[in-house]
Design goal:
By secondary structure, the protein is mainly alpha-helical. The protein is about 65% helix and about 0% strand. The protein contains 25 helices and no strands. It has helices spanning about 5-25, 35-50, 95-110, 125-135, 135-165, 170-180, 185-190, 195-215, 220-235, 240-250, 260-285, 290-295, 295-305, 310-320, 325, 335-345, 345-365, 385-390, 390-395, 400-420, 425-430, 460-465, 470-480, 485-490, 495-520. Helix 5 runs antiparallel to helix 6. It is globular and about 65 Å long. The two termini are about 15 Å apart.
Length: about 525
């Protein structure tokens, strides 16, 4: 087979998977934010895309959060005065930079000229309809396409990683569909949270690390450092992935003849990302933020000692309202998968277990370890791929019917849990108004003495199935469905279903065709 033909063969699966999952994620996107964090990044992204400051910005006076005077009154805002009108924000600069192209496209091409399309017939809450109609169309276009784009890229990276371990095409595709549709990856594909692009950067870094292992090419190790550096610039807690990588690369140096070359190939790009973050911060505020990284161990120790740490450690994995294995039940098989994966990939298995251990122990100590009203522990989103990857070894080894049925059942349950979130606006209708006693899960936050629980979240939401957001969201969906899918509103039911089904059917046909061709070649 010629080199050109071989490259085309290697590209066909990634291209089809990207298109397939992009369509699935796009056609289930709601086209709007659900957290304040997302709006912070979007506001900065709009300023970057248009290279225009916010009209309310005043040079020499405005501070971070100046866009929200009703939440952060200027007379009480003691943050540093901004030095840059475009970057005056607490949001990650790189996060907003990745959003800016999506804003730029709609700003100049007007794919969505207006967002004023919703009526009281769509949702029975007038205030919600008014809010949706007031959203800037550039924000809507970004929210509609940003999460699906980076989530689809993450799926492709995950597929290539699974293939690097010599899992068969079928096993790799099973892993991909479980990862993309039965874990909280699908739910978060409709968000613009920085954990979405960070997941892609981390998976890409791991992919090039695998290529470095297989080919011993230092270019791949440099790319590993670059992508992990991008993850750090997007979310600072990505350093929890970089540190284990650094330690394991130091271990491998004993087997290398080119020790210095290997060392600096990884260190230079990762350290450069830290210097770039310092540069961004200096441009933004003219100040230094060295303590943001160097104080991590102290902040972890302080949080762990002042909170019910073991309870939170259990909760972040198994609690009804926030547990990772509750919101993505297929991940339970990681307890089996790691045993099977370890037999052939001892070193990488230990590396992945280190990722998992470090992140879980870190976020279990965090003050708000449950991720607020995220669909499951949203801070652990980058871990999902690493927890499901070892399952590939089990799929190829365990052929008994009980195992297969268990995988199918947990996968289907995971798909249902995702759909419960995707089909409605859980943040608004299920949680209710933040700081309100009127309705929703927030209404449970008031204590008997008149005070409130942290972030207006009553512990019963986290620790009982009765008030778990999965239970409440499911009840709401079946009793009073108000579908919150943007393209369904734009296209209408018939056209939406037609385009979606035809697109999925065509791409699935190509995928099945290529699987058959690959099977014939293997035989």
């Amino acid at each position: 087979m010629s080199l050109q033909k071989k490259n085309l063969v290697n590209l066909k699966y990634p291209l089809i998977l990207f298109a397939l999952f992009l369509i699935i994620f796009l056609f289930t996107s709601d086209g709007h934010r659900y957290t304040f964090d997302e709006d912070l990044a979007a506001q900065q992204a709009k300023r970057i895309a248009t290279f225009s400051p916010d009209p309310s910005y005043v040079q020499g006076e405005s501070r971070e959060f100046f866009e929200y005077p009703w939440l952060f009154p200027p007379e009480h805002n003691t943050r540093s005065i901004c030095q840059n009108a475009i970057l005056c924000s607490q949001a990650s600069v790189l996060h907003s930079l990745t959003q800016a192209p999506f804003m730029f496209i709609n700003y100049h091409l007007n794919f969505l000229p207006t967002s004023d399309i919703w009526t009281i017939e769509d949702f029975d809450d007038f205030h919600y309809v008014s809010w949706r109609n007031d959203i800037d169309s550039d924000f809507t276009f970004m929210e509609l396409t940003y999460g699906p784009f980076f989530s689809a890229l993450s799926v492709v990276s995950f597929f290539l990683i699974s293939r690097s371990y010599s899992f068969s095409i079928k096993s790799s595709l099973i892993l991909v569909f479980l990862f993309g549709l039965s874990t909280m990856t699908w739910a978060y594909s409709q968000t613009s949270l920085n954990s979405v692009p960070a997941t892609f950067f981390i998976l890409s870094g791991f992919l090039f690390y695998r290529k470095f292992q297989l080919k011993n090419s230092h270019v791949n190790l440099i790319l590993t450092g670059i992508f992990l550096g991008l993850a750090f610039l997007t979310r600072n807690d990505s350093i929890l992935f970089i540190i284990p990588f650094f330690i394991f690369i130091l271990i491998t140096l004993s087997r290398k003849n080119t020790k210095l070359k290997t060392f600096f190939s990884f260190v230079i790009p990762t350290v450069s990302s830290y210097l770039i973050s310092k540069f961004f911060y200096y441009i933004r505020s003219g100040a230094d933020n060295t303590s943001s990284v160097t104080s991590l161990p102290n902040s972890w120790a302080s949080s762990a000692s002042s909170s019910p740490y073991l309870l939170q450690l259990f909760g972040i994995l198994f609690s009804p309202g926030a547990g990772l294995f509750i919101f993505s039940p297929i991940l339970i098989f990681c307890f089996v998968g790691f045993f099977d994966f370890y037999k052939k990939n001892k070193f990488d298995c230990l590396l992945i277990i280190t990722f998992v251990s470090v992140l879980i122990t870190w976020f279990a100590a965090a003050t708000y370890w449950h991720g607020f009203n995220g669909w499951g522990p949203r801070y652990l989103l980058p871990l999902v791929a690493f927890l499901i990857l070892p399952l590939g070894a089990s799929i190829e080894k365990r052929t008994n019917i009980f195992f297969k049925i268990s995988v199918v059942v947990l996968g289907v349950v995971g798909v249902f849990i995702n759909l419960v979130y995707l089909l409605q606006d859980v943040s608004w209708f299920v949680w209710g108004f933040f700081g309100s006693d009127e309705r929703g899960l927030y209404s449970l936050a008031r204590k008997d003495d008149g005070s409130v629980f942290d972030l207006w979240i009553n512990p019963v939401i986290i620790w009982t199935f009765e008030f778990s957001q999965i239970t409440q969201s499911s009840l709401w969906l079946f009793s009073k469905p108000q579908f919150d899918i943007y393209l369904l509103k734009i296209l209408g039911t018939e056209l939406f279903i037609g385009i979606f089904v035809i697109s999925i059917a065509f791409l699935s046909f190509l995928l099945v065709k290529f699987i058959k061709i690959s099977s014939l070649r293997e035989n």
